[in-house]
Amino acid sequence: MDIYLLDREFQTVCILDGFSSLLWNRRYKAPGDFQLVTADPKYFVLAKSAKYIYRPDAAEVGLIENVGFTQDESNLEMVTIKGRFLEALLYRRVISKTVTLKGTVEEVCRQLVSDICINDPKRKIGNLELGQLAELGSVIDTQSTGDNLSEKLYELEAVEDLSHRIKYDFLTNRLQFEVWKGLDRTDEQSENPIALFSSNFENVVNLEYSVDETEYRNFAFVAGEGEGPGRIVAEVDCTNGEERREVYIDARDLQKKRGDQEDFTDQEYQALLYQRGLEKLQDYKRTEVFNSNVDHQSNLIYKKDFDLGDLCIYVNHKIQLSVNKRITEIDEAYEGTSLTVTIIFGDDYKSITEKIKRGG
């Protein structure tokens, strides 16, 4: 495996001769991260002068955020290089002014990135441009003030099971922002080959499975502007015949007045509140998560028959389980010449509860 260290201008600092271990954690609903450990101390100085870590065989590029050096009592030396993938660059920007946008989810996300990270010369992220339009998502109305850009993008995308990525072209040094969606590999479609994970097919090594409804909510009261009995409240009903579980969402930051523009009509303002409710209910989902080590060279080949973001079938006959779940995380662990691939299907309970504690 070739691993390049690149400087802030994407020029090659060095190519690593080897490493002790590499963790490469890919995520669908958040930026992934990595950790590389090498016993050669010369890479400490080289990594400190580098900005990125690049693998020609990987879709992601690492953003170097932490470089460490240790030496123990037996003089064993270790250099550790850690960070997140390029999507974490968007965490460095906020939506500083009130913006009101209407369009598909993809169009809204692209507009936010374009306005904040590309067209504003003071806030521009170097080499970043918009990639190909994929025509994803339904039309929404949304308004935002003060949100972290990256968190807002994932929030908008989560309602429709979308994600975004920043693709890097090694030859041109261009960075391209794209909204994307994993492939449907279930038996409910005929366009893509089916991906079925089951111990019966010997492609699953082990399994950890849990379902949790502790924080689950399916009905939202979204309170906008106004005071007391005059406050405007929208109801978002996602019960679909289930027992109602309510949550109150304070959305007073959404305002009907738009400065020098024409104010929102009552119907338009209700649509804004409704969209906010849909977004926030994603933080209160029923969590069902599968964590499995898989044989990546079995009947299903990693990155050929399944990949990050794909909607796949998971079957376990012992617990009478058969569900369609999206791959939301793939962890690659390299130790010497060995590779272990761990797949997570579904939503991580910890990440959802962390969002709620932050004020979701």
Describe what you observe in this structure.
By secondary structure, this protein is an alpha+beta fold. It has four domains: 4-85; 93-180, Baseplate protein-like domains (Phage tail protein beta-alpha-beta fold, 3-Layer(bab) Sandwich); 196-213 and 286-358, Elongation Factor Tu (Ef-tu), domain 3; 219-283. The protein contains five helices and 21 strands. The protein has helices at residues 42-48, 105-118, 149-158, 266-281, 349-358, and strands spanning 4-6, 12-15, 21-27, 33-38, 52-54, 61-71, 77-85, 99-104, 128-130, 139-144, 163-169, 174-180, 196-198, 208-212, 219-223, 233-237, 246-250, 287-294, 311-316, 321-335, 338-346. Strand 5 and strand 6 (61-71) form a beta hairpin. Mean pLDDT is 92; it is low at 349-358.
Report how far the terminal alpha carbons are from each other.
Answer: 40 Å
CATH hierarchy class name of the largest domain: Mainly Beta
SS-based class: alpha+beta
CATH topology of the largest domain: Elongation Factor Tu (Ef-tu), domain 3
Provide the low-confidence segments as ranges. Answer: 349-358
Q: How do the SSEs run, as a string of H and E? A: EEEEHEEEEHEEHEEEEEEEHEEEEH
Number of spatially distinct domains = 4
Roughly what fraction of the amino acids lie in strands? 35-45%
- Under the CATH scheme, the architecture of the largest domain is Beta Barrel
What is the number of helices? 5
Shape: globular
Major β-sheet annotation: 13 strands, mixed
